[in-house]
Amino acid sequence: VQLQASGGGLVQAGGSLRLSCAASGRTFSSYAMSWFRQAPGKEREFVAGISWNSGRTYYADSVKGRFTCSRDNAKNTVYLQMNSLKPEDTAVYYCAAALRIFEKPEYWGQGTQVTVSS
User: Fold this and answer.
1) N or C: less crowded end of the chain, CB within 10 Å?
2) 3-state SS string over 67-110?
3) Cα–Cα distance between 108 and 118 in angstroms, integer?
4) Contact 69, 35 (CB under 8 A)
């Protein structure tokens, strides 16, 4: 599975962005998908995850109520809708595929930069 993340950019605090992660390969629907982020000088952290059939979603406490993770298996794409963005959301965002949420990802996307100005 190859993953291509897009949709990052520069936005003011309080604004919104939608990230997309397009996957190649026929097995996309077999994988749980997650979003991670890494801010400068910090370790990569889990942001959100969704099961293979969208039955379950999980969010980091820092983004609950503001971010929504969804997927469209027919389009081999997973999304991260980010609302009420804060400067502390500034990071490079990565999508990742694993057989189950919270397992070590087998595949990673290349990352997309999100910058939130105050």
Assistant:
1) C
2) EEEEEECCCCEEEEEECCCCHHHCEEEEEEEECCCCCCCCEECC
3) 30
4) yes
